[in-house]
């Protein structure tokens, strides 16, 4: 546990399930205030709210599309209205999109992923940093990236591009705001046992495990543990970094999916 996090306020986008939910729940254990964001899953969001409260934190759910400026602004407005401020912004919302060879991918399928994964992270960081600068607050921005910011994903070019862009987004923001005391970092999970990976069975599962030196899929909880550390004062001298939570998967960057 990190005592400095107690009472702080965080926004976690895409926190009705998966990694975002686990991060929000870990923040609850840290006795934090958490804005739970969802887009189409209010039941999952309310479950996350309940878990955060049961853990000793406080939470409020907000439905919003993070690929839109008005959606992100609604999240910040809710944080200020319910908890008084914003200390931490976790840009977690994202999805894989359609699997296809690049020449067969439509512009619409490309934009759907870029708009949420990359533009959403930019908007979340932009609005949170603006709020912090106006009030001279020292805060933290955390982007949830992927091993595919480093390892190409051949039939999912839009996803690889979004996460590759997130890497340099993180690093550029870190340079711009380090002197203001605003830290910007990323966590890049490998293959995590979430709903999106439920189809990993049989030979497909075995093939995926061969790419992971630890020979095991990660859990959302393990990603959340890393998230709590990197936004805490224990990581106060860390900015512009990507922390890979991948069981060693990026040690084999030549392995393609």
TrEMBL record:
- Coiled coil ranges: none
Query: Which Pfam families does this UniProt record tie to the protein?
Result: adh_short_C2 (PF13561)
Keywords for this protein: Oxidoreductase
Question: Annotated Gene Ontology MF terms?
Answer: glucose 1-dehydrogenase [NAD(P)+] activity
Q: What is its EC number?
A: 1.1.1.47
Provide one Gene Ontology biological process annotation: bile acid metabolic process
Fetch the PROSITE patterns from UniProt: ADH_SHORT (PS00061)
The membrane spanning regions, by residue number, are none
**SUPFAM superfamilies in the record:** NAD(P)-binding Rossmann-fold domains
Database matches in NCBIfam families: PRK07231.1 (NF005559), PRK12826.1-2 (NF009466)
Q: Which family does it belong to?
A: Belongs to the short-chain dehydrogenases/reductases (SDR) family.
List the protein's name: Glucose 1-dehydrogenase
Q: Which species is this UniProt entry from?
A: Bacillus glycinifermentans
Native organism taxonomy: Bacteria, Bacillati, Bacillota, Bacilli, Bacillales
